[in-house]
Sequence to fold (194 residues):
Amino acid sequence: MKILKTLALCGALLISAHAISDADIESVMSQKVAEAVSVMRSSTPKDAKPAKIFALFDGYFDYKMMAKLSLAKHYANLSPAQIEEFNKAFEAHLKRSFIEKLSLYTDQDMKVLGKQSPSDKRRVLKTQIIGEQKNYAIDFKFYPNGADWRIYDVDIVGVSLIQTYRSQLGDVAQSLGFDELIKRLNSTVIKSGE
Fold:
């Protein structure tokens, strides 16, 4: 019984370690962005940098919600086992895509510009990557998940990550089926159904 209580306490501490309140979104994310830039500029081996960055941000992303929103109406047609398989494949695909993008990093800075509240249940954290020639807007979209807030979408230069995946994944799910959808998520590129 003591072991179960200890495990439950550790689990609660891990969850609360990544909990973020509405009031803290801007300050916490500013700190995490600064830490991520520091990791990217550090002498840490290139192949070790993604894990350090994921450790900074994983607790703030709701990968399951992102997967559900990306598959839209097709998500409701999945069995519980398929949902679990899809969620894992989707998160892994997102992370592989992120790792590929990290290879393009060339010492840019990233700044948090501020938080907006488009509705009671939505927050947008405006950030910007400062490039040599041009700056690029990245907006992190949050929703309330109990007492804390989680990221459910990211707009990169005005393009929603979820909308992009919804278009691609919906076409594949509808025309080619679940097995092909998983196969494509597990590859590096997702093409619409053919």
Observations:
- Residues 31 and 68 are 29 Å apart (CA to CA).
- Strands lie at 109-119, 122-130, 135-145, 148-156, 159-160.
- Confidence is low (pLDDT under 50) at residues 1-17.
